[in-house]
Amino acid sequence: xxxxxxxxxxxxxxxxxxxxxxxxxxxxxxxxxxxxxxxxxxxxxxxxxxxxxxxxxxxxxxxxxxxxxxxxxxxxxxxxxxxxxxxxxxxxxxxxxxxxxxxxxxxxxxxxxxxxxxxxxxxxxxxxxxxxxxxxxxxxxxxxxxxxxxxxxxxxxxxxxxxxxxxxxxxxxxxxxxxxxxxxxxxxxxxxxxxxxxxxxxxxxxxxxxxxxxxxxxxxxxxxxxxxxxxxxxxxxxxxxxxxxxxxxxxxxxxxxxxxxxxxxxxxxxxxxxxxxxxxxxxxxxxxxxxxxxxxxxxxxxxxxxxxxxxxxxxxxxxxxxxxxxxxxxxxxxxxxxxxxxxxxxxxxxxxxxxxxxxxxxxxxxxxxxxxxxxxxxxxxxxxxxxxxxxxxxxxxxxxxxxxxxxxxxxxxxxxxxxxxxxxxxxxxxxxxxxxxxxxxxxxxxxxxxxxxxxxxxxxxxxxxxxxxxxxxxxxxxxxx
Length: 481
Description:
Elements: H1 5-17, E1 21-24, H2 26-32, E2 40-45, H3 49-59, E3 65-70, E4 75-79, E5 87-92, H4 98-103, E6 113-115, H5 116-120, H6 134-140, E7 142-143, H7 150-153, H8 156-168, E8 171-172, H9 174-183, H10 192-204, H11 208-216, H12 219-223, H13 243-259, H14 261-265, H15 269-277, E9 279-281, E10 284-285, H16 286-296, H17 301-304, E11 306-307, E12 313-314, H18 318-332, H19 337-349, H20 363-373, H21 377-389, H22 398-420, H23 429-436, H24 442-456, H25 463-480
Parallel strand pairs: 2-5, 7-8
Antiparallel strand pairs: 1-2, 1-6, 3-4, 4-5, 9-10, 11-12
């Protein structure tokens, strides 16, 4: 391990700058576990980690860049692109000695270190410094905190515990779980972007059991108090579960669908997988955002509940309230504006997918659905299937599930056909605004989508027909108002 020249150069040069330099944290853990392809390394030094990182970047023979990380705690980063060691973080000791530093880290499996001279001398395994028993916990696949103050020192570590559980397939020690239960409310003191980065990893994995465990020990509710009112909230006859248990089931169903794409979409399954793994922003794929949408798709039900004179429970326009809640959470965890737009589109649009399970749906309606949501109609179709499979009350027909699976594939086929033969609009937004005195806004958007559907169906063939059709459409719309 670490035999490549780039690591040899980094370790040697770092030792020239500070003799008391140690490899620590995840790189030690992963090396002992036999993980291949370690590229991110943490080095703890007795001196000024910030300044040593700057000098290290200058000393390497490969192109390397210094990135200031934390001037107060004296942490610097070296980025060496196009090498095996893409990120090297150098930090000053937390305490007076390397043992002090290791004991101040989050979990025992991350609290091991090795002097860089011992690595260069080929003594990695024999020279492990392990003050809190991390090596034994690594073998037993247990996550224990390195000290009783670990979660107090940084409440994000509670979420990191679940991230490691999901990522490494470890179990969290019962003592740590009890601490999480007592301190879960402290997670609100953590910055939204730090929560986002951990949550994005968790939701990118098969995580329905992890989410349930986070809820059981309170951390989920600490992060998302907006969802607390869904606990135990009884629904209508289309549902056999309360809102929160339905949400859990929908998440489990979505993950089951994703792991069985071939069964649902056959030869089109690769298109769905490409869609889910596409990065909307660097290092954040669409798949985790879709799971976040599932978690919040019914968040508006508690505040929209009405009960009529016959005792029927209704949740009218709950999707709009849910969309607002999801957007509020998206802003808190510092999602990009594009991510918030897609998240809100899925949540607010999830009731419009009822056409996928309806008995008689025209090709025109399906085309309009695809035009309205574009490629994100794929995400909506997946959310619909997961939602429907989790809604098996006495009023639900088994045929609805069968129809929805067929129509989910039909959505893909329509989108593929649209991409094969992109349609040139007969009228664009500027022309509609000029010809019909329309303003920017929802009415212009709905008119453009309606016109696109009519053109796709072959009902409008030229500009003159388009102008006349829009005139009739707007006239009818005004009458309805």
